[in-house]
Write a structure and sequence with these properties.
Elements: H1 2-17, H2 27-32, H3 73-86, H4 89-101, H5 114-121, H6 125-134, E1 136-137, E2 142-143, H7 154-166
Antiparallel strand pairs: 1-2
Helix pairs in contact: 1-4, 4-7, 6-7
Length: 169
């Protein structure tokens, strides 16, 4: 009986942690997290014979005059770390995490509480990110996947976790 009441209370409190209409992130956080725009294509040449032989093929077409295809993955790989760094962890925390981590709902480590965060942080950043993104049930409580805010990206969750850990030392 007690376990079922406890389970109901935990579910009810977690339902309160999920904002119904989350506030949007500041414009600088959302635009910086967007993938890098592809470089603009050059204007078409007036003379079809004047096509640039070094231009990348379009939609899988064969390269012109044996030119090697451009490596399209390189810009995306360079943009990924910048996108993670550009996410505002504080804004994500205020939007999605503060309801539970502000009050310690369902065993959530309270923001700014070094004793609560210390053992968790000692497990390492990768473990914290994994538990926050995928969800976790431990001895002290449980963490729903992405805090119950399924609309958050993994990078937003990571930024929020980093923010909370940095402010709980």
């Amino acid at each position: 009986m007690k376990k079922s009441i406890l389970a109901i209370l935990i579910v009810a409190s977690l339902a309160a942690c999920k904002p119904q209409d989350p506030a949007p992130l500041p414009p600088e956080a959302t635009t910086a997290a967007a993938p890098a725009a592809a470089p603009a294509e050059p204007a078409p040449a007036a003379d079809p014979a004047a096509v640039d032989a070094t231009a990348a093929p379009v939609d899988g077409a064969a390269p012109v005059d044996g030119a090697a295809p451009a490596d399209a993955a390189a810009p995306a790989a360079d943009a990924a770390p910048a996108a993670v760094a550009a996410v505002d962890g504080e804004a994500v925390f205020k939007k999605a995490c503060v309801l539970c981590h502000g009050a310690g709902v369902a065993g959530a480590p309270k923001f700014g509480d070094a004793a609560d965060w210390g053992p968790r942080a000692a497990q390492g950043e990768a473990t914290l990110f994994d538990h926050a993104i995928k969800g976790f049930t431990g001895q002290k409580g449980m963490m729903p996947a992405k805090g119950g805010s399924a609309g958050l990206s993994d990078d937003e969750v990571k930024a929020a976790v980093t923010y909370m850990v940095e402010h709980s030392k």
